[in-house]
Amino acid sequence: MADFNDTQRLDFMLSQGRELVLEGMGTNGRGTFWYTLYVQEGRWGSQEYERIHLEGPSDFDASPEQKRQAIDLAMEAQK
Predict the structure, then answer these.
(1) Distance between CA atoms of 59 and 54, rounded to whole angstroms?
(2) For residue 58, which phi and psi values (nearest 5 degrees)?
(3) Among the residues of the chain, which ranges form H helices?
(4) Top-confidence residue, 78 or 14
(5) Which of 4, 7, 34, 46 yields a CA-CA distance of 20 to 30 A from 15?
(6) Which CATH architecture has domain 6-78?
(7) Where are the domains of the chain?
(8) Is residue 67 a contact partner of residue 48, using CB atoms and an 8 Å limit?
(9) Measured between alpha carbons, how far is residue 35 from residues 2, 10, 32, 66 in Å?
């Protein structure tokens, strides 16, 4: 994976109406939830990039590093 800096990530996200999406996918029945984190492009999500699969509690929020990883995957797909 290429090394991107935060300025490149910000420029990428601001172009084409991109946003990070953290989507809950389900639970194992014991309090752990599965999530996917990905970059979506366009107002109605006309394009979605590769997803990162995560797990955590019901109030889970992705870490800054996980968010960077999702953006980097999307940027790699644009090359």
Answers:
(1) 13
(2) -65, -25
(3) 6-14, 64-78
(4) 14
(5) 34
(6) 2-Layer Sandwich (3.30)
(7) 6-78
(8) no
(9) 25, 23, 10, 12
